[in-house]
Amino acid sequence: MKDGIKIVTIGGGSSYTPELVEGFIKRYHELPIKELWLVDIEAGQEKLNIVGALAKRMVEKAGLPIDVHLTLDRRAALKDADFVTTQFRVGLLEARAKDERIPLKYGVIGQETNGPGGLLKGLRTIPVILEIVKDMEELCPDAWLVNFTNPAGMVTEAVLRYTNLKKVVGLCNVPIGIKMGIAKALDVDVERIEVQFAGLNHMVYGLDVYLDGVSIMDQVLDELGNPNSQWSMRNIEAKNWEPSFVKGLGVIPCPYHRYYYKTKDMLEEEQKAAQEKGTRAEVVQQVEQELFELYKDPDLSIKPPQLEKRGGAYYSDAACNLISSIYNDKHDIQPVNTVNRGAIASIPAESAVEVNCIITKDGPKPIATGDLPVAVRGLVQQIKSFERVAAEAAVTGDYETALVAMTINPLVPSDEIAKQILDEMLEAHREYLPQFFKSVNA
Ligand code: G6P
């Protein structure tokens, strides 16, 4: 890879960027980055300047020869990149707050990546990702796209279906969070734990767990049902699982499964939060303000611990481990979003899945897991259908397709309610959805 690696991070002004920079610094001995380009749009310029200055101080403190560039010129940044990471949010947190609040009015879960919120986020995000891919094909055709932008599963599906880019990987911190959670609950070192992951993004299950190579699934399922175990992520209420349910399910659900298996409880919790402390996006807006105040401090040259209040903890480990394993052809096992190629029998071969893969210089090679257990197979297939129809709607701007996506989502109770929610949400996000308002904009 020439003399040193060039990484481009789109959405570089994100409050998460110090995590990523810390991850690169920690791994410099195996991942010699020469240039790190943080790219943002005009609306993100102020954040980019603040977080970019912190990134420069972090690199300087570490004494490493990484050139950090800040720019609003995406195309200039992409030229000859080796890895492009994407972590942007179309419409910023204000748009996420609408995704969370509007469905609640109709008695439906309002969430960033699940249900109506996930659909609308996909409709806003996919066209932008496809534009980035177009630029990549022209300016850095050999680069890898490492996407964190949510909804990461739907975005990966769209890139696989609607572009010719083969070098795309979707990443998430849910699997690493589950692994950490198990290690913590059992009070063992995380390196001793191995989890066999399979499913979709934010819909992934642990099919088996090993401690030093011995399956400890029964113990882990007991722990999941333990009411004292606070095993969740920062952004999701840690509502207890019914012990006999998880035991009977026989696989480890991810924190997001609470929206499907505990819909009523989660809805009530969201409604209460929306009235009292604000939705998750509104809480995160506060956290962000505090973070950016800290980032401004010219004496700060490390990632501040307050960043751990965000749900994306460890995401840089997932990202940096992946990039390093591709670069170093490590052949280690990591759970990522990639093309299925038959690894999960019940999902189309050409679709995106989140599954354990062997990571090589040619990318992730999914490990065959066969069929998912019958108790979870249907839900996973249903969500995959939702993601596919949603991606099609995002690309075509077709209203009927969007309505079908909304209606087949298991969190939406009827076609009529789906239509009401869709109409209100399309209008609310109009400025970010030009594909749905073509005749008006023409
Ligand atoms: C988890 C998910 C991410 C999501 C994040 C939200 O980590 O895996 O996909 O972006 O939570 O966290 P936040 O602090 O923004 O609510």
Structure description:
The protein is α/β, with parallel strands linked by helices and 442 residues long. The protein has a single domain (1-170, 262-332, 345-356, 377-437), classed as 3-Layer(aba) Sandwich (Rossmann fold). Helices cover 47% and strands 16% of the residues. It is built from 17 helices and 12 strands. Strands 3-2-1-4-5-6 form a 6-stranded parallel β-sheet, sandwiched between helices. Strands 7, 8, 9, 10, 11 and 12 form a 6-stranded antiparallel β-sheet that branches. A hairpin with a 2-residue loop joins strand 7 and strand 8 (203-211). Helix 1 (17-26) runs parallel beside helix 2 (45-62), helix 1 crosses helix 13 (315-328) and helix 15 crosses helix 16. The radius of gyration is 21 Å and the shape is globular. The relative contact order is 0.14. The mean pLDDT is 95. Bound molecules: 6-O-phosphono-alpha-D-glucopyranose. 6-O-phosphono-alpha-D-glucopyranose (G6P) binds at residues 150, 172-174, 233-235, 280, 284, 310-312.
